[in-house]
Amino acid sequence: MALVGLLLRRDRVVAVALGAAAAFPQSAGVALGSVAPVPVFVCVAAVAAVGGLLTRDPRRFPSGFGLLVVFALFAWTWTVLGPWVFEGALVLGPRGGLNNPERVLVPLGWSETNLTQSVILLAALCAVFFLARTGTALFTLEVSVWTCVAASFVREPLRLAGADVLAPYIDTLNAWYAVYEVRWRGVFSEPSLLAGFATAVVVFSAARALTTGSARTRVASVVLAAAAAVLLVGAGAGTGAVAMIVIAPTAGVLLVVRFVRSGGKGAPWYVLGALVAVLAALTVGSTAVSGVVEVVTAKVGTNSQVSRGGSDTIGLDLLLHTVGLGVGLGGNRSSSFAVSLLSTVGVVGSVLFIAVVVAAVRGAHREPTRVAAAAGLLALLVAKAVALPDLGDPLLWLLLAASWPGRGSVGSDPCDGVEWAGPASATSPSRTSRATPSTSPAWSPTHPRPSPHSRPSPGTRPASPRGTSPRRRAATPRASTQRPCSPCGRPSWCGPTRSSTPRTACGAGGTTPV
């Protein structure tokens, strides 16, 4: 499908293929003999990168994309140097699984795992590049989560009934676990991965229902949140339970703050939600709390908990041994994502990754349609900090790309187009013509086109306040009248400052007193 979309140059088709591939993170796309199977997400991401280069409507990259590129370059560089600088240091290899208490330390050196993790990070960067370039991140995320939830619900009854006919098509990577007879794992290799996915989807869907203005989207988000909650309960994993213990009270506090800051906006919905929460607490509250306590306490003292805790301790010791530099991607595998990140890319790489996340969350805060993705991203990071160390989780990168605010197309900018200003007098406004390379020094290929609502109709001229004919300003305005033009902040002709009459100064509809 991705190749078809690439040949037809249809970004949406490639986005659907990328979302569907992300929905099956434990499925192989290519198997090359003795070489480890290549995840299907990696294969589709490579095609998507080409699609991002050939897109017909390229978007400008968000500010956080540059930080992501810097993080990837640093991670790849240190993956090459780290095993050489600290050769022989004892690390935890990826073989044997995190829950295997008999894992032993192995000496550090270049291995196939270093190459594998580097390729996975490259695939993630390619996917984010395509999503940022085409503006299809939110659409791809929706395709992915709906597909994964639906496929998990289809598979679980078959697996529990002993007729898992989908296993040959889903469990095609080199690691999956068949020891779970009651706990759900959906399309993932183990229940904890399903729990981490479901945690992020519950938060994403709930936030989407609260922030959307569409009734249809709100209903669909509630349905998706309920389905993901069922998967979370079915997984019965301590990862999801601990993550929700952190997320639930935090979300409650944020809702109260949002309600207060909005001046009581949407009060009926908040009251209805509070009533539903109280009713749920009275009916199934004790059962839910006892279930969470049982899951958490049952995990304490088990081989899994001891092994995971020990792997995190080894990762922190390795961080100190390498003086905070780490051993490179794939060099060590701890249980917690935070410890794994510190022990592989060190303090510098971890700070760069945090900067990428902060840039995404800050950008989403300024654009309500992205708040849900940012909330899901933070929820997933909380779950991964508990016991999900994989950097190549497709959902992580889809949420990151969907959190970044949308940017205009290349060749468009809200400050290019119709501007109302007086070139020499506050009483004589002029109509600025569309900037061209030959008439305006401020012209650039990235300048936006004016908004249709701010452009005069063909053949019409704006009326002057004193009935005089509008005049076209000079090609090079005086420096004294150049000042930032809202909303883009670029220097633009806004007219003399002695007039107090507000006039439209940008094609995007912003006004600046001129």
Task: Describe the structure using short key phrases.
two-stranded antiparallel sheet, 514 residues, 2 domains, disordered C terminus, mainly alpha, 55% helix
Task: Describe the structure in brief.
By secondary structure, the protein is mainly alpha-helical.
What does this structure look like?
The structure is a single chain. The radius of gyration is 27 Å and the shape is globular. It has helices spanning 2-8, 11-22, 40-54, 63-85, 112-134, 137-160, 167-170, 191-211, 215-235, 238-261, 267-299, 303-321, 337-365, 371-387, 394-403; strands spanning 28-30, 38-39, 90-92, 105-107, 420-421, 430-431, 482-485, 490-493, 502-504, 511-513. Helix 1 (2-8) packs antiparallel against helix 2 (11-22), helix 6 runs antiparallel to helix 15 (394-403) and helix 8 (191-211) runs parallel beside helix 10 (238-261). It has 2 domains: 2-403, no CATH class; 411-514, no CATH class. The longest helix has 33 residues, at 267-299. It has 15 helices and 10 strands. The protein is mostly helical and 514 residues long. 55% of the residues lie in helices and 6% in strands.
Total of domains: 2
What is the percent of helical residues?
40-55%
Low-confidence stretches: 411-452, 464-514
Beta-strand residue fraction? 5-15%
Mean pLDDT: 75
What is the straight-line distance between the termini? 53 Å
Give the strand order of the largest sheet, numbering strands 1, 2, ... along the chain.
1-2
Output the helix-strand order. HHEEHHEEHHHHHHHHHHHEEEEEE
